[in-house]
Write a structure and sequence with these properties.
The protein has 463 residues and is α/β, with parallel strands linked by helices. The protein is 28% helix and 15% strand. The structure holds calcium ion (2 copies). The site of one calcium ion (CA) has 6 residues, from loops.
């Protein structure tokens, strides 16, 4: 599938008739703003206004973008749940903490680090969290005044229609109603928190577990994406020919692509992801509706992000766990009353290390320990402001991707490289790293690689 030129016209479309929105009101003087914090799991750029897939339907993510700034070139610090979330919520990169993979219990090595919610709690905020905020295996309930675990044994049993997918790629419609899903219940719990009496500013996090696998949501969501019309990602037959071995091993580790192609069910998997995204989008809509109906809408910052992207066959790869655009790029949308102008689109390269410093900056909280990123205030105020920092993503010890406005540069631990020019090659099909004329560009990009790369933290089974 080709890259869609939506972004160029988005700012224009959004500028029409949207001058009066919640964002036109300034944060109330002298009051610390509330924060509605919405982590999403495994949502790539298949969001209508980001143009990642022509058939995706995400009206609520789009309306959030319309009232604030959407970062169209935002990248995770790590392309896996636990290291991405740990980095964002502590402000420390995987290369500084050793938390590179899902198998590292982060609190074991970061015992005394003041996380983002804990910092808000320490500074007098009422802090409540629901759903998947930290990686599911390693929550820290002590960070919150109120904490609800994702799902529970009381959730209705999911009634799968069909066989549930192909190998490790799990998908298929459910006979359940939307209200049976844990995400729906967690959103309901978060809405109750928004609507309770508040005598302090609040930080309420509602993490959605979808569209993470299994791509299983009620049948009605599948019906919105007729199977015969599904558009598959475009995958040139020779795309992997110019990828070094280190990249190939990331792409082919699980053999998902061969199994999906052999099964003849690639379109079904894409349909299921689109359906699951549409379900997650509706849950975002419920949160926005509740905030807008509350007394807090003009005094609440909204920060929405997905922990990383997802491949559905691009580079013959499935899932995350890679350093290409589709795995590192993910939606990040901010609404800051009085600061963000409606319909802002920022194409500067940013990564999630900026979230913690931005929130404490906007809320007027003191700094908390070491922060490796910087506040996005300048870009929230003016999405076209000058910005000279690259985005950096790390996947395992010493494997990094640097993203600037124009380039992606990947350097693996064994020294092998990839280089893509996004001005001419947005799908990253032509690896330029072996072309000697790009040596100066590579040198310049490599300057953004971390100088410190600590060894892996202990794994869950290690003591
Ligand atoms: Ca994830
Ligand atoms: Ca290629």
């Amino acid at each position: 599938m080709a890259k869609h030129p939506f972004l160029g016209c988005l700012a224009f479309i959004l500028s029409l008739g949207l001058s009066a929105g919640p964002s036109s009101a300034a944060l109330r003087q002298g009051e610390r703003p509330n924060v509605l914090f919405i982590p999403i799991d495994d949502l790539n750029d298949w969001v209508t206004h980001l143009g990642g897939h022509p058939q995706t339907v995400t009206p609520h993510l789009d309306r959030l973008a319309e009232r604030g700034v959407t970062f169209a070139n935002a990248h995770c610090a790590a392309p896996a749940c636990n290291p991405s979330r740990t980095a964002l919520l502590t402000g420390l990169r995987p290369s500084s903490t050793g938390v590179y993979h899902n198998s590292h219990p982060w609190r074991r090595v970061l015992k005394d680090v003041v996380t983002l919610p804990r910092h808000f709690k320490n500074q007098g905020y009422y802090v409540a969290g629901f759903g998947k905020v930290y990686h599911g295996s390693y929550p820290d309930p002590t960070d919150w005044d109120v904490w609800g675990r994702p799902g529970s044994k009381d959730d209705p049993e999911h009634q799968l229609i069909g066989d549930g997918g192909v190998g490790g790629i799990r998908f298929g419609p459910l006979a359940n109603d939307a209200a049976d899903l844990p995400d729906y219940r967690n959103v309901t719990a978060a809405i109750e928190q928004i609507n309770r009496p508040h005598d302090k500013p609040w930080f309420i996090a509602c993490g959605l577990s979808k569209p993470h696998m299994p791509f299983c949501v009620p049948q009605e969501y599948f019906d919105r994406f007729p199977l015969e019309s599904i558009v598959l990602p475009e995958v040139p037959a020779d795309d992997l020919d110019d990828i070094p071995e280190a990249g190939l091993s990331m792409a082919r580790r699980q053999g998902d692509h061969a199994a999906i192609v052999r099964s003849g069910r690639w379109k079904e998997a894409v349909q299921a992801y689109l359906a699951t995204i549409n379900f997650a989008d509706e849950q975002v809509g419920r949160l926005l509706d509740a905030l807008d109906a509350s007394p807090h809408r003009d005094n609440t910052i909204i920060c929405l992000w997905s922990d990383h992207g997802w491949h559905l066959g691009e580079k013959e790869h499935w899932r995350k766990f890679a350093l290409w655009e589709r795995a590192t790029k993910a939606p990040m949308i901010w609404s800051v009353p009085g600061m963000t102008s409606p319909g802002g689109v920022c194409t500067r390269p940013v990564d999630y290390m900026s979230v913690y410093p931005t929130l404490i900056d906007l809320c007027g909280l003191p700094a908390s320990g070491e922060q490796e990123g910087v506040s996005l205030r300048a870009l929230l105020t003016d999405p076209g402001a000058a910005w000279d920092r690259p985005a950096l993503t790390t996947h395992g010890l010493n494997n990094h991707a640097i993203r600037t406005q124009d380039y992606r540069y990947i350097r693996y631990a064994d020294g092998s490289e990839e280089l893509y020019d996004h001005r001419s090659d947005p799908m990253e099909w032509k690896n330029l790293a072996g072309d000697p004329s790009f040596a100066p560009i590579k040198r310049e990009l490599a300057a953004g690689l971390p100088s410190k790369n600590v060894p892996e933290a202990p794994h869950a089974r290690e003591r």
